[in-house]
Amino acid sequence: MPEFRKIKGVPRKEAVSMGEIVPLFVKSRGLSAALNTRRVFAAWDEVSGVKEFTLRKFYRDGKLFVTLSSSMVRSHLEFQKESLVDAVNAFLEKDSLFDKDCAKAGFVKEIILK
Prior knowledge:
By secondary structure, the chain is of the alpha+beta class. The chain has one domain. It contains four helices and three strands, in the order H-H-E-E-H-H-E. A three-stranded mixed sheet has the order 1-2-3, with helices on one face. The longest helix has 17 residues.
């Protein structure tokens, strides 16, 4: 039987839902930055509508670097970068797995298309 450890902020005898315990577990294990990065990539795929043209994604310091396979798609998205940043952040705001307080990987500040 696995050993269960007490997570800070959760009294031992109080029933807690999975929706409350998973974010606490992620934070206690230091997994927030990696999970947030994956959620940013998922938000880009969902919001941009160009998942099939996206070759690579990289995220650091609030900057989302996206490599696209089509120069036409890239130049079309260049004009929409500010609205894409807003749309990605709105998507992340609604995401229950996204840790809004994570200092290493927070909301998107800029999108850089390559």
